[in-house]
Known about the structure:
Helix content: 25-40%
CATH topology of the domain at 64-201 and 438-596: FAD/NAD(P)-binding domain
CATH architecture of the domain at 64-201 and 438-596: 3-Layer(bba) Sandwich
Structural class: alpha/beta
Number of strands: 21
CATH superfamily of the domain at 64-201 and 438-596: FAD/NAD(P)-binding domain
Low-confidence stretches: none
Radius of gyration: 24 Å
Strand content: 15-25%
Largest sheet: 7 strands, mixed
Shape: globular
CATH class of the domain at 64-201 and 438-596: Alpha Beta
Mean pLDDT: 93
Bound molecules: NADP nicotinamide-adenine-dinucleotide phosphate
Distance between the termini: 57 Å
Amino acid sequence: MPAADNNAPNQTDLDALRERYRIERERRTPRKGERRYRDIDDGFAHLAVDPYATPLERAALHDAVDVLIIGGGFGGLLAGARLREAGVQRTRIVEAGADVGGTWYWNRYPGAACDIESYIYLPLLEETGYMPVERYSKAAEIRAHAQRVARHFRLYDDACFSTQVTSLDWDASQACWIVGTNRGDRMSARFVMLTTGPLNRPKLPGIRGVERFRGHAFHTSRWDYACTGGSATEPLTALAGKRVGIIGTGATAIQCVPPLAQSAEHLYVFQRTPSSVDRRDNAPTDPAWVAALPEGWQRQRIESFTAQLSGNLAIPDLVADGWTVLARAMRAMLARDPTADPSALLERADLEKMVQVRANIEATVRDTATAEALKPWFSLFCKRPCFHDNYLAVFNRPNVTLVDTRGRGVEEITEKGVVVAGREYPLDCLIFATGFEVGGDVAARSGFSIHGVNGLTLAEKWSEGMSSLHGMHTRGFPNCLLVGPAQSGMSPNFPHMLDEQARHAAHLIAHCLRAGVRTEEPTAEAENAWVATILSLGESRRRFLESCTPGYYNAEGHDSEALARSLPFGAGPEVFVDLLRKWRAAGNFAGLELNGAHAGPTKENHEP
Length: 608
Ligand code: NAP
């Protein structure tokens, strides 16, 4: 059991709180040469195998499509849907999983759910005529919705599942991409869209001896129900009588710890940094509320949420949940003092919110030392905020032990179990809730090589850090659309930004196909100017991240030029969306070089 913390600062003394945050950050800052994580291909490829797929045999494909979309998660589905709406028919989704769903295909761990409100998270609700059954959807409902979108927009036609893209090679003579896969395919595509998602590759902790454990071990994104029994919503019956350990206390662990605690004989939760865990308050969807919704309600609700997260306090907060809490607090403070400095108000709102989060832990967890160890000492948005109504109370159960490592992490894994502070915890089953590879070269992270003009690789081009126009185009890689938050819009409601990028790409691709444009790529000037914008607008975000406890948001505390260059657009997602809309409306494809027939300016405006 962790020792009680006698150094807790006075919760109203802002300087003391800032100092406590600094001490906690220092405690977790990696030591020189410390390897925080280990690549799953470094001896653990068996932990990345798809446990949900049944074997599939098919002949290799050697055909041609207009647009090949790599990834069948919401990014790929939205791209496919918006392309269909823009009149593009010859599209193909290629996906490593055996079905659509992306992150919701892979993450089927017990308790998996989305803590972004379902009415804004599940895309295309009005288009598909679906309404989620509750305010925060469980994973199975989200996966079923991904399938609904695929059926509605005929995206299963021509899709390739259980297929890993291995190479993308630009063929300048034909102005197309040659796409190789692990099934021997060699397809050609006039355009490719990389919608592989920022969190698609599981990683393991860089703990000494991680390969030695002889019990059953797996990563949360490849849940081994053969080992645990049960399902995402039913008791894990095979864990009766078993000692189970879970390493990690991020958003995934917060959700699967309660069901593990219910079924295991004993559960050990190994913690390096506690998450901020606030109440979620789920509820069934109210039919009367649904009946009163006007046409266009979903877009309005999505945009309201993004506005709150962008700091636009003039837009009403329609979602009003734990994500928009700081905007609500700032509104109240500004009503009291309209001349106050917004950044000072934001810091105060954040510090006060975290005081509440810690007070809720104290009120819920009976053992004082455990409650102290569960308290997060950092700003709300330093790490991904978590929302769960049962996680904290789990630590009142006699069969659950929090093994707090006081910021240093698990020190060793042995054949029998996990070692912390010199004590070995013997285990039958060890679960890695240690997250996903983040950042770097999207192609390498997604398991394929890419060669653009004159054989240039993305790793070569980005050796000094990312460079793009709008995070979506990069010179030397024509007709290749990148989709993701780096140098682009970023909202915790991921599907919103995916949709904006999908609309943008569909607009451009539909124009190129209609007008006979052979290639599009950004000019060097436009790309340099965008990188300069990202760097200058990202300065305050970078300073904020520097003040944060290490994690994947700040490259584990390693501030670097590469991190600064892969930050999202710093003026916020709402401004980014507006910028893309105006760019499309202008009709001159500013900053892009369009080569081939009818490549010039256009006044057409196809907003799907
Ligand atoms: P994560 O946030 O990256 O968490 C990894 C965890 O492993 C952290 O708690 C980390 O501790 C811990 N860890 C790593 N090495 C360790 C060691 N040696 N000893 C002890 N602990 C160690 O991964 P995740 O929880 O899978 O979440 C990833 C992302 O998925 C989330 O941020 C979110 O974007 C998404 N997600 C979303 C939902 C949703 O509701 N929509 C649900 C789940 C996940 P430190 O914090 O100290 O590094």
